[in-house]
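For this section, I looked closely at the sequence of one protein beside the C-alpha cells encoding its backbone, which the following lines show:
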Amino acid sequence: MCLKRNWLTLSQNTKPLNEHPELPVKFSDVNVPTARIQSLLINATRGQDPVSVVLNGVIHLVFTKEMLRTSSGLGLCPRGNSDTQKPLDPLRVIAIKERET
C-alpha cells in the first residue's frame, strides 16, 4: 500500500520536460518528476561539468534503464538483432535535445 501511495504522489508531481510555447501538446507525453529535475539542477551546479551532469540526468529521467539497454540508440546505425532492438522514442529524444539548447 505504501509503494502505491508513493507512486501516486510521484505521478501527480510531474510536469512536461519542455513546454513548447507554440505547440503546448508537443511534449505533453514526456513527463518527468518535478522534484528530481530540481535536484538534478542543484547537483549540476556542484559539479565540474554541469552540462554533462544535466544531460545524463535528463536521459535517465526520460528513459528507463531497460529502454536504454534494449534499444539501438537513435537507430542510425543498425547493429545486432534489429528485430528486438528498436530505436529510442524520437519524440523523447527531440524533447531532450530541445531542453539542452
